[in-house]
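[audit] Reproducing an earlier prediction to check determinism. Same input, same settings, fresh worker. If the tokens differ from the archived copy the diff job will pick it up downstream; this log only records the rerun itself.
[audit] input (195 residues):
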Amino acid sequence: MRLFTQFVFDFFKATTAPTIVRKALPKKRNAVAKRKGDAERPERSQSARQLRYDSVVDAMQARYGFRVRKWRTNLSGVAIRIERRDGTIEKLLEAPYPTSPLRCAIFLHEVGHHALGVGSISPRCLEEHAAWMWSLDAMREHGCVVDEKVERRVDRSLKYAVAKAMRRGMRRLPIALVPYLPEHAQIQTTSIASP
């Protein structure tokens, strides 16, 4: 009996949980940006063009003080302005990370909304026009190429914005948006100057 109890004792002693040694995890590359609340930047090549796009992102964040909530993988974006009860204003942005002229234009379009003031231009389709024009000017200012894809996207986006405004009952269209009217549309124009 003693041999059996010694055997059981030795068995349980051997099967007790071993001490766990945890290795320290490596620190993330953009840990500083993450602490500030910005979305982590995706890994990209270090080509001259990409470095230019990276510098555009840095310059825009420094100048307009927005926080990137999410880097989108699709070609869409949103600019959000939150006014807190204590009077502070938070500027948020979601957009694709600039890696091509089209992605850069969409990113700068959303920055343009913050630069001009989200919701400060009426009607909404005129704000869209102003943000796109601001985006194209910023691209040229930073030496980025405005190619045919970018121009097509701007044209399609503004045609969509005008058609949406008309569906919602817009009766007077700013003159700057006349080129984006749907075919066979009948509407009065006003001489609202675009900013």
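[audit] rerun output stored. Observation attached for the diff report: Residues 37 and 67 are 7 Å apart (CA to CA).
[audit] end
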